[in-house]
Amino acid sequence: MPDLTKGKLSTKSLAEAGMMIALTLVLAFTPIGMIRLPIVSITIAHVPAIITALVLGLPEGFIVALSFGCASLFLAATSPSSILDPFFVNPLVSILPRILIPITTYFVYHGLCKAFKNSKHKETLSILIATAVGNLTNTFGVYTMLYILYAKEILEKSGKPALTLIIGAISTTTLYKCIGIMIIVLPIVKAVKKFALSDKK
Questions:
Q1: In total, how many domains does the chain have?
Q2: What is the phi/psi pair of residue 29, to 5°?
Q3: pLDDT tens digits, residue range 80-130?
Q4: In CA terms, which of 45, 99, 160, 191 is 20 to 30 Å from 91?
Q5: Distances 138 to 4, 12, 14, 181, 195 between C-alpha atoms, Å
């Protein structure tokens, strides 16, 4: 396993990032990780990027997040299914918010590890909060860019003000999805980190 804190790229860590990219693409291109709805698609395809940032480091997390963003752009260009999907052809909507996911996840995690250094639950708390922040980075990053760039077009397509539509979409799924992703990520990251530490002994 690579160094868990320095985030240096190596052949091994790139290979492991490659596996996470493969998982990202499986989630992005199948109903397992992408639920296509009339208004907007709901996805958990950014989970590998969060896990990668927590386990492998920032550079690898960035690469995995970039693959997710590119997959979102490709899907929007080739098989749009919701009202908002056509707007994801713009990289500022489909890619930019996604490459911010590992950045916020990584720095929040390491910052909290230092802040909670005297707590016996520092690892669990840091992983959970960093995961939530990474997930919300994706959600609010995408919707913010949609509003900034396409508020008028969203109104024309949906017949509703962009802000009303976006708030409705966020309030419907964000909390439940965030909790679900935290439940998924925590045991995986803790298990991988435990394995990595035992592997070094």
A1: 1
A2: -105, 10
A3: 877 888 999 999 999 999 999 999 999 999 999 999 989 989 999 999 999
A4: 160
A5: 23, 27, 23, 12, 29
In a domain, 112, yes or no: no
The alpha carbons of the chain give a radius of gyration, in whole angstroms, of 17
Helix, strand, coil in percent for the chain, rounding step 5: 75, 0, 20
| Domain of residue 24, CATH code | 1.10.1760.20
CB 60 within 8 A of CB 17: yes
d(CA 120, CA 18): 33
The pTM (predicted TM-score) of the whole model is: 0.87
Question: Does residue 116 form part of some domain?
Answer: no
**How far does the chain reach from its first CA to its final CA, in angstroms?**
12
